[in-house]
Design goal:
The protein contains 9 helices and 15 strands. The chain is of the alpha/beta class. It folds into 2 domains: 54 residues, no CATH class; 233 residues, TIM Barrel.
Length: 311
């Protein structure tokens, strides 16, 4: 989903009202790290398990080794914010007809050639400071506009782990909902610690063939499948597959993908969406609406709820 613009004054790296967020959050250590010898530290948040020397930044841009300790680089740094219809996440069967306050930061632990939001996922985009407490106040204030909670989205929210955890607890305290729109590329322990505070997730299942992830996303398939298994039954789960002609849209791919999902539960909603050429992948052209609907009908043989997106 394309991010909305920040409200109020233009985003700037020193934060709101001239406050330097680096000074506010300079002492925020990263969760899930292992301190090693020679000043090295290993991140334990996602399957990459980045091993960093002092001064090095993780591939997701969210962590940095400072003096042998891993610190968070994007805590409370918001690049994008909008009050969106819940269906844009996309969530079709979770509080339909409502809106949700959507926020994102910068960075991602995958590097998809076809990324739709690469300007914030693959670069350190301009940001403004928004504390978890401020986010909670905004979410509560927006109830009058139909807001039901907060969606952590636009870029990859699991790399914003510490901020999402702190914010999600406050959002629950306010009686609101938390939603993750995620690539699912996270290790089991941090995922299970976060899940009690998450009410719904849309997880990208980019393809069901193992070679797609290393070739086009710089990751691997199995951790995503494991995330889907772990999340089912713990919160509301919907899945999205962005179809790219010639790469993940064969009939065999869709049948295999839908049968794999159905083996977990045929009640998991699946969104099959059209990609549009962007970032490093300017070709091929988007899949035709006719073929998209044909593939959705194939998936519907195994799943009870299949949606055609971006039509």
């Amino acid at each position: 989903m394309k991010p909305g613009s920040l409200p109020g004054a233009a985003a700037r790296s020193e934060g709101q009202s001239g406050i330097d967020s680096e000074r506010i959050f300079v002492g925020k250590p990263a969760l899930y790290q292992e301190i090693l010898e020679d000043g090295r530290v290993q991140c334990g948040l996602c399957p990459h398990r980045c091993l960093l020397k002092p001064g090095q930044v993780s591939r997701c841009l969210s962590r940095e080794n400072k003096g042998g300790v891993l610190f968070v680089r994007n805590y409370a740094k918001v690049t994008s914010m909008a009050l969106d219809p819940i269906e844009k996440k996309p969530l079709a069967s979770f509080h339909p007809g409502t809106k949700i306050l959507s926020v994102g930061t910068f960075g991602c632990n995958l590097a998809c050639d076809f990324c739709q939001n690469w300007r914030i996922s693959q670069e350190e985009a301009p940001w403004r400071e928004l504390s978890p407490e401020h986010l909670q106040r905004l979410a509560v204030d927006m109830r009058k506009d139909g807001n039901t909670g907060v969606a952590y989205t636009y870029n990859e929210p699991t790399i914003w782990y510490e901020y999402v955890m702190d914010s999600a607890k406050l959002i629950h305290e306010a009686g609101l909902q938390n939603v993750l729109v995620t690539n699912g590329y996270i290790l089991e322990n941090p995922l299970k610690a976060l899940l009690p505070f998450i009410d719904a997730m849309n997880i990208d299942l980019k393809a069901i063939t193992p070679d797609f992830y290393p070739y086009l996303c710089k990751g691997t398939l199995e951790p995503v499948l494991e995330t889907i298994r772990n999340c089912h039954g713990q919160c509301h789960v919907e899945l999205t597959t962005l179809l790219i002609p010639g790469l993940n849209d064969s009939e065999r791919d869709i049948v295999t993908l839908s049968e794999w999902i159905a083996a977990i539960s045929p009640d998991i909603p699946l969104h099959l969406s059209r990609h549009h050429p962007d970032y490093k992948m300017r070709e091929p052209a988007p899949i035709s609406v006719q073929r998209l609907r044909h593939l959705a009908s194939l998936a519907s043989r195994s799943l009870r709820e299949v949606h055609a997106g971006n039509v």
